[in-house]
Amino acid sequence: MKIYFPIHLDGGNRGCEAIAKGTAEILGLPKEQLIGLCRNIELDKRLKVDDYVTLWNQKSHLKDFYNRLIRKCMSIMGVAPSKIKDMAYHQHYGIFLDQIMQNDILFSTGGDMMCYDDNEVVYTNNYLHKRGIKTILWGCSIGKNNLTPAKIETLRKFSFIYARESLTADMLHRELGLTNVVTFPDPAFILKPQKCFLPPCFEKDVIGLNLSNFVVNSNDLSTGFGAEVNKLINYILNHTNLNILLIPHVLWKGQDDREISNVILRKYNSSRISVLNSDTLNYCELRYVISKCRFFIGARTHAVISAYSTYVPTIALGYSIKSKGIAKDLELNECLVINSKQVKENAVLSSFKYLSQNEERIRRHLEKMIPDYIGKLHGIVEMLNL
C-alpha cells in the first residue's frame, strides 16, 4: 500500500512543506510509501521534504508549452471551458494518478484548497472515484459560502474527510449530511522547531509580523486593511520598545510575502524593522524563529500554527473559515482573529492592545491547551486503520 499526494505542489509555500512533513510524522510510514507530486524538486530537497516523502517530478516545461498551445486552440474553436480545464488537469495529473493501484490511497491535501474555485481537488477525486480508489480529503477547511455543485458532488465521493477544525466539520454534517467526517488538528501542529541562527533584532523583544497580498488585498498598504496595518506599526514604533520582524512564509511568484514585507521596510526605513531571509530556512526553522518572538501576528495559517504550537501570544489575520475554526478549537478570544475582508476601523490595533494586556494569560492558556490538542493527532492513525 502506498499513499499518493497529487496536490503537494512544493515548499515555496512553507505550508505545503509543513503538511507533507507533518503528515509523514503522523502516519509513521517510510518515505517509500508516501509519494508526492512535486513541481520544484530542487527546492524540496533543499528543504529536506525528501527525507519524509518520495518526490515525483512534474512534467517538463516544454510539454507544458505544447499543452497550453493546444488548449488555446480549443478555446478558439469554442470548446467548453470546463472541458478545457479538465484537459489541463489530465495533462498535469494523469500520469501520476494512473500509477495508483487498487490497494493504494490518495490523500488530497492543500488545507484550504476547497475554499477557492472548483479546482484540481475536484478533478483528482472524481478521476480516482471512477476507478474505485480510496480517497481521503486530508486536513481541510471549507465554509458554506465556498460550496458549489461540483464541490458538493465530489465531497460525497471521498471515502473519508479529515477536517482540521470543528467549524468545517459542523458545516459538512449540517449542510450535506456527511457522516464520514472527523475533526483533528492540522498535521503541521505535530512538527518541532528546528534551531537556527537568529537575526540581530532578537537582541530586544520582537513582534513577528507575517503579511500576505491575500489579507492586505494588494502588494502595498494602499487598501483599507493596509491603513490598519500602518496604524499598528506606528503604534508599535511610538509606544513600545518592540522590534518588528517581518516573516515571509510563502515565496511563490504572485503570492510572495516578501513583496509586502519589503514595501513596509522601505516605507518606514527604521532600524527597528527588518525582514527575515526566509528563503534560506525550512518550515521548522521558521517555527524556531517564530517561537522566539514575544508576540506574533500572521496571515498565513501555517505561520500562525507555528506560533500557537510554541505558545506565542498570537493574532490570526484570517480571510476564510480556517483561522476562525482553529482559534475556536483552541478556545481563544474572538478578538484574536481578524477578518481581513471585513475589517473594522482600528480593529487590528485594538486586538494588539488586547494581546499585549493579556500576554501572560494567553501564553498560559496555550501552554495548557496545546499539548493535549497536538496529542489528538495520534488518534487519526487508529481511525484510518492503515
From TrEMBL:
Alphabetical list of InterPro entries matching this protein: Polysacch_pyruvyl_Trfase (IPR007345)
Origin superkingdom: Bacteria
Domain Polysaccharide pyruvyl transferase as annotated: residue spans: 13-320
GO molecular function, one term: transferase activity
The keyword Nucleotidyltransferase is annotated on this UniProt entry: no
Keywords assigned: Transferase
Pfam families: PS_pyruv_trans
Protein's UniProt keywords contain Cytoplasm: no
Record's protein name: Polysaccharide pyruvyl transferase family protein
Organism whose genome encodes this protein: Bacteroides uniformis
